[in-house]
Amino acid sequence: MTAPIAGGVDCDLHPAVPHLTSLLPYMNDYWRDQVTTRGMTDLLSQSYPANSPITGRADWRPAKGKPGESVDDLVKHALDPFGASFGILNPIYGVQLVFSEDMADAFCRALNDWLVKEWLDKDARLRGSIVIPVQSVEKSVAEIERCAKDKRFVQVLMLVAGDMPLGKRHYWPIYAACERLGLPVGIHAGSNYHNPPTSVGWGSYHIEDYVAQAQAFQTQLTSLIVEGVFAKYPNLKMVMLESGFTWLPAYLWRLHKFWRGVRMETPWVDRAPAEIVRSNIRFSLQPVDAPPDSETLNRLFDQLQSDELILFSTDYPHWQFDGDSALPAGLSSDLVRKIMIDNPHATYARLKDPVAKETTP
Amino acid sequence: MNMQFRSGPQQDNASAIKTAIADCDIHPARATASELYPFLAKRWHEHLEVYGKQAYQGMMGGPPYPKAQPNASRRDAYPPEGGPQGSSLSFMQKQLLDPHNVALGVLNPLNTGQGIRNHDLSAALATAINDWQIEKWTSKDSRLKGSIVVANEDGPAAAAEIRKRAGDKNFVQVLLLSRNVEPLGQRRYWPIYEAAQDIGLPVGVHAFGFGGNPITASGWPSYYIEEMVGHSQCQQTALASIVLEGVLEKFPKLKMVMIEAGFGWAPSLAWRLDKVWQKLRSEVPHVKRPPSEYIKDHIWWTTQPMEDPERREHLFQVIEWVGWDKLLFATDYPHWDFDEPSRVLPAGVSDDNREAFYLGNAKKLYGIA
User: Fold this and answer.
1) Distance between A247 CA and the closest CA of chain B, angstroms
2) Tens digit of pLDDT for each residue in A10-26?
3) Which of A172, A351, B25, B274 has a CA positioned 20 to 30 A from the CA of residue B81?
4) How many Cβ atoms from other residues are within 10 Å of residue A179's Cβ?
């Protein structure tokens, strides 16, 4: 392992909603009644079955309840050991899986308000991501505008696999709002399962779904780049969360080659894909899909041809590494500083903003 | 590619190919729609004329994403006697086989009967296209070898077609496409793998195909370039399915060729598979070894479209992982993204590796003396 340095930013932490009923205090009477009288169950996504080894590292699991349920545990397991000065919370809860935009809207509002009260108010280092009801672009924009008043929200969160490719013009009002409000869009592993979880259909196993996240990120990058999102919103940053990054060099070689061949189809893509990635796209560190030898890893960083792309993450409580080895072996001290401090601060402009407590309306 | 705006950096054009090569991805075409009729029962002629081939996509004719060029093929590849690109043996000889010194050309017919919803028609077309490969191509030029096209969604029919061709030296592999109704590791495709293993032929999985699934896990994208790039992601998930369903454990002698989907992604996919398998192997007890070992032992890769990083050492790093003994040179003739044999490999490759890359690996895999 490489030793962490103090003052870093952990860009991918997962606070668990204990149960759908935990959100009831943050819903209006109508939705409280809906949840209760219809007997709705906990919104657990197949992307992260509660007892899957990936979902919670064994030594981070509480005696009772879901991994990532307690602020104290998160501080003890993730923030303190790595000396983080900020931790960005990305709640992964099944609110994106529902089909009704009204229900999604009510649940997202509740989830965001829950995050403020149960997490952001409890530790000054914590920052949040705004979960949006992507089922409706209009409602998503409204939720972003509502939450963005609280400067502790530093990002908007979407899943990598949803109803449509993320570059589609349909979603652009969301990106316009994010650019205007200085919020990067975080795209996290996981599917809403409205499409088969792989691009060749439904597999048999959880492990297939998890492996296929990397391919889903690749197709989303293609969509975001070729639809022209970053030509339209040049100051918009996007962060691929729990995406892996070792696939990036070979992916870009292929995209670049075809872009040279058929760029007449998307003439607004006026920069090479790799340049667009370097200016607008970032990746969380974990999982590091590479063998644990420093030579391979440094070769991969050389292939990336940039030291600005990767942002430190533990992916707590997901099991990506053992012990304190959040930083893979062999990283130079310059690169560690970039990954832990400089790159996250360059990405999340709002980390600089002074925050007043409880500013959410 | 034949449409490059500039030549890639560090390409050494002095290393022109003078020795014989294998071209492991050639696409032979029919000059007319009725060219297959002599190989099809009369009922299917009528069926095709009335109902056509209904694929797992909506267009009756032509692809859902319009190609960059007609038939996705080179504009200079139209035969002088007429017909689409790739439909004339004499012109293929003149434009590809003779000038590039192709000693072995592997035919991969596309737009056949794969990916269509009527499985009886699919099987009839597969048999017809195989007979047509012999009649029009392999019997006329001994450099050319066919691929056994099968009704991909009908395991028993596909297996019967494969067994029927056992020992027939006109064929060197079984052909599947990457996109099907289900991921390729699923049991419905196992009769194909079993039959291929039994008759000792590799299974080639060519990028493309229709199975009704959106080409991304997030639905249908807008552009042809997304489909083209997306084939590599489809191939990755298809290969992951093959490994994680235990196909290569069940059929330990099976060899597979990943055709036209790139190979640069292979190390990263294998590392990810290994890493996740360490944690989740209790879900897939039939996967007995680290996934990367199955990939290294069982998978070959055709080269076109050749990985083209700015710095050649990055290419060599990937090949080092994949193995110089696992790459099969291919041009993709007559498609527009043709790889010119004298230009694909940068300078700095040993003579042995160069020979393996261009010819030796293919001869060995396909059993050509």
Assistant:
1) 5
2) 999 999 999 999 999 99
3) B25
4) 18
Contacts of A285 in chain B (CB under 8 A): none
Q: What contacts A172, CB < 8 A, 6 or more positions away?
A: A229, A232, A233
**Residue B305 CA to chain centroid, in angstroms?**
12
Residues linked to residue A185 through DSSP beta bridges, in sequence order? A156, A238
**Predicted confidence band at B17 (pLDDT cuts at 50, 70, 90)?**
low
Assess whether pLDDT exceeds 50 at residue A284: yes
Q: CB B179 to CB A205 under 8 A? A: no
Hey, is the C-beta of B7 within 8 angstroms of any chain A C-beta? Answer: no
Q: Do the Cβ atoms of A262 and B225 come within 8 Å?
A: yes
- Helix or strand run (H / E) with residue B299: strand B299-302
Q: What integer is the mean pLDDT of B298-304?
A: 97
Dihedral angle, C-alpha A250, A252, A257, A262, nearest 10 °: 140
Distance, CA of B368 to CA of B163 (rounded, Å): 20
Half-sphere exposure at residue B332, Cβ-oriented, CA atoms within 13 angstroms = 24
Nearest CA among A339, A343, A349 for reference residue A285? A339
Could you tell me the two tokens for A195? 């499409």
Pairing type for strands A126-131 and B299-302 reads unpaired
What residues in B contact A207, CB-CB < 8 Å? 244, 276-277, 280, 283-284
A208 in contact with B at a CB cutoff of 8 Å? yes
Q: CA A59, CA B74: separation in Å to the nearest integer?
A: 59
| Alpha-carbon dihedral sign for residues A176, A196, A222, A182 | positive
Q: Which residues of B touch A226 (CB under 8 A)?
A: 222-223, 225-226
User: Helix A206-226 to helix A273-280 angle, to the nearest 10 degrees?
Assistant: 100
Q: H-type helices in A263-307, by residue range? A: 273-280, 294-304
* Helix, strand, coil abundance in chain A, percent, nearest 5: 45, 15, 45
Q: What is the pLDDT of residues B238-287, one digit of tens each?
A: 999 999 999 999 999 999 999 999 999 999 999 999 999 999 999 999 99
Q: Which helix (H) or strand (E) holds A156?
A: strand A153-161
DSSP 8-state class, residue A170: G
Helix axes A294-304, B312-322, angle to 10 degrees: 140
| Pick from B302, B180, B215, B278: nearest CA to A211 | B278
Q: Do A2 and A331 form a contact (C-beta atoms < 8 A)?
A: yes
- B174 forms beta bridges with B148, B203
Interface of B with A in 67-96 (CB under 8 A): 68
Please state, in angstroms and rounded to a whole number, the distance separating the CA atoms of residues B95 and B108: 18
Q: Residues 165 to 194 of A: which have CB under 8 A from any B CB?
A: 165-168, 191, 194
- Collect all residues with Cβ–Cβ distance below 8 Å to A59 and sequence separation of at least 6: none
- Chain B residues in contact with A134 by the CB 8 A cut-off are none
Q: What's the whole-number average pLDDT of chain B?
A: 94
Which H or E run includes A251?
helix A248-262
Nearest CA in chain B to A247: B268
Instruction: Find which of B4, B218, B245, B306 to mutate to test the A interface (most A CBs within 10 Å of its CB).
Output: B218
A70/A61 Cα distance (integer angstroms): 10
Sheet holding A126-131, edge to edge: A8-13, A84-89, A126-131, A153-161, A185-191, A238-241, A281-284, A310-311
What's the rounded Cα separation, in Å, for the pair A6 and B82?
71
Contact A331, A75 (CB under 8 A): no
**Any A CB within 8 A of B236 CB:** yes
Which of A166, A196, A291 lies at the smallest CB-CB distance from B271?
A291
| CB-closest option in A167, A201, A287 to B213 | A201
Query: Chain B contacts of A295, Cβ < 8 Å?
Result: none
